[in-house]
Amino acid sequence: MQLSPAPPPHCIPVSDTREEQRLPPSRPDQGRLVRLGLVLLALTTGCARPAVEGPPPLQDDDTPRVERLQVLMEALAADSMAGRRAGTPGEHRAVTLLEAELARYGVQPAGSNGYRQPVPLIGMLREDGRVRWTRAPDGTLTDTLPPERLRTAYNVLGLIPGDDPDLAGEIVVVGAHHDHVGVGAAVDGDSIFNGADDDASGTVAVLEIARDLAREHAPGRTVLVAFFTAEEIGLLGTRHWIENPTVDFESVVANLQIEMIGRPDSLAGGFGRGWLTGYERSSMGDILAAQGSPIVPDPRPEMRFFFRSDNLPFAALGIPAHTLSSYNLHSQYHTPDDEVELVDYRHMAALVEAAVAMVRELTTGPTPTWKEGGREGLPGG
Fold it and tell me: How far is the C-alpha of 276 from the C-alpha of 309, rounded, in Å?
C-alpha cells in the first residue's frame, strides 16, 4: 500500500524554535541536570546513531536516576511535542528522541526499519463529519484519499539479548505507550495536552529499564523494549505489532506495561509504591510478593484497568501480561494540565527501581503462568 512518504529512519527533522530548544530552569544545585539537558537536546535535534557493540560511554553516567528522569520527562512532555498524537509531527519528534536514547544505551534495533515499525493510519469520516483515526486496512486505495486522511505513526522497538543459554530463547516484552492525545480545546489558554503522567512517565521508566539491562548485567531471558504508538485511539500500535511481530512472537512469555507512575497513589501506600493490574491473575503477583516489592494489587479493581491498557492484546492471546501504575485518579487526566511540574520524581525513581528488580526476576525466574481463572473476562478465558 502507498502511504504519504515517511522521513528516513533516525532523521525526522526537529524544528529550531525557541520553544523546542527550551532547557529546564537552571538552579545552583542543578549543574549536572542542565548538562544532561544539553546532551539530550543534541540528540533530539540531530540524527540518532546506530547501536554499537558493548555499552558505549555515556556523559550522564554519574547523574542520579531522579535527575535523568526529570530531563527525559521535560523533553518528552515539552510543548514542542504538541501532545504526541499518533501520526503527527509531535509524535515523530518523540520517536526521534526514543530511538536516539536506545542507540546511546547500546540497545539493538528491533523494528522493521531500524528501531521503527511504521503503523499506517487512515482517517475514517464519521456521520457527524469528524475524522476517526484507525489502522489502514490491507488493500486500502490510498491514492484515492486526500493526504490529510493518511498518517504514519511509529512503534519504537529495541532488543536486549539474554545471556542464559537455557532462557535466552524466551522473550519478555517491557513496554509503554509514547503517544498522547495532541492539541485540543484550550483550558485557561493552554491547548497542548502534554501527557506528562500519561504516559511520558511510563515511557521514561522503560527507557531507564532498558539502560540498566543494556549497561549492567545482561538479563537471562531476552527483553524486547517496546514503545507503542496509538494506544490512545484503541491500542492500535500494540495490535499492529502483534499482527506483524518483528521478533518470534511464539517466544514471548510475558509482557509488562508501565503507565502513569508520575505521582504517588495513597491507596497503594503512597510514596515509592505502585500497583499491578490483575495482580492475582498470574504468577507475576507471586514474584512481587516474594521480592517484598512495593508493587501491590490494584486497589481499584472496579475500574477494570487490567482491560484498559496495552497489556490487553497480549493477555487475550494467552500471554501473562499486566500493567504497572500508580495512577491516583487525579483530575489532570487527559487535560492540558497534565504537566511535568506535577510529577514527583523521587517517587517515580523509587518505583522505577522496583520495576527494574521485577523485570530482572521475570527474565531469570520461572516462566510466568496464569492462575486458575486468571484469564476470566478475556477471549477464550
Answer: 12
